[in-house]
Design goal:
Strand content: 5-15%
Order of helices and strands: EEEHHHHHHH
Shape: globular
Low-confidence stretches: 130-141
Number of helices: 7
Oligomer: single chain
Strand order of the largest sheet: 1-3-2
Distance between the termini: 25 Å
Number of strands: 3
Radius of gyration: 16 Å
Structural class: mainly alpha
Helix content: 55-70%
Largest sheet: 3 strands, mixed
Number of domains: 1
Amino acid sequence: MQIISMPQSNAFTLPGGKIFITDTLIREADSTEEILRVLAHEAGHYQKRHILQGVIRGSFLTLSLNFLTGDFSQFVLIDPNTLSRIVGLQFDRGLEKEADTYAVETLKGLGIGSNGVIHFFEKMKKKYRYRSSCPRIYVDPPSG
């Protein structure tokens, strides 16, 4: 896991399983359990191979567009923020629910409840309600 400095409250996982969490998310969380729930959700994306699925879909889309336009300049280096957007755009509600289920089961196995976590996502949803830059995780908050 790596903490990164960003103005948005967010967390994401890259291929290989490395989880990034923003310092803003940590500051906005009311408890350690809220942070653990977010981390468990991200671990669920990795364990269920959602990251790989997202990268494959994103790569296919990018390659298709590049073949249509003849522009291959995008294959230089991609920073983690850009990659997280590519991967994040590929997660549908079904994958989010699957990651939520993984997180709830994992936390339950550790003796940590998931009730307080819903409060965190509701708080973030309310905070980002009128912002066009609302992180996707708050648009489709965890189920369960």
